[in-house]
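Reply to dn_fold:

You asked what the input looked like. This is it:
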Amino acid sequence: MSSIKRAGAMGLVFGLGSLAGVACAQAYPTKALRIIVPFPPGAATDTTARYLAQKLGEGFGQQVIVDNRPGANGTLGLDLAAKAAPDGHTLVIGQTGNLAISPHLAKVPYDSLRDFAPVSMLISSPHVVAVHPALPVRSFKALIDLARARPDQLNYASTGSGSAGHLGVELLKRATGIQMMHVPYKGAVAGFTDLVAGHVVVMFTSVMSTHAFSKAGKVRLLAVASTQRSPTVAEVPTIAESGYPGFEVSSWWGLLGPAATPREIVGRLNGEVVRIMSGADARDRLGSMGADLGSGTPEQLAAYIRSEHAKWAQAVKVSGARVD
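and this is what came back:
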């Protein structure tokens, strides 16, 4: 076959492949979608997924099922998604802990940077120091003073070993010279249940996760770990204002599929997510709970995951944190 004919044949193959991809995206979705939530019901990841499922279902005209698969700080659900059929019908909420932190603390059954097809960022939320109301402290400085006076006598809850809340406190311990005992839970709701009951006295997690408990007066917020005060809890000072400049910890959540998901389907999903998260309803529903709404391209989310993966690798090294 001449080079011209070969080139023509190759062009036809690529052209047909492109047309097939477009046709695939136009037909998608052909059945119910599943969004895997790697945590128990009730907290920020679950709330975000259920809102997204409702809106995606309306946009696609298909049922979207939220499938809670908690365990191992979100790594079990993420692994399930990585091994799912890459047809765009199984998606997962990935976040700070299971994508950027856990891989540096323990062996996980997936590669955060290679085993997923990022779709779009969803939300982020700064962390806040929450304490049981009976604890005799009303400022972040008072908490640090108490912890210094009672080393290893105060305990703190986290949403699991390797979560941003766990690593955040380990970094805080290093910055302030305090010692507190770590009590890991399987999600924010379980941790807050024991915090409200007084079984643990401190928790460091997202503003979004604390929203309902602080609004009901069941926990006291002492400081937020962001460069500026959170509009949702504007009365709460930053950790920087409390004497520790530059201390910043937040959680973020993104939507992903298995790695080989066709780019045309990823693009279709991305368009829907951007539309949803840019709407006034999302601002009213999620923004009012302390979420900073995001979106963006799949490439932007991929780049962000890479940067967070590198950042938390250093944080794990500096903190000396271990899996409990």
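The CA atoms of residues 94 and 254 lie 5 Å apart.
Hope that clears it up.
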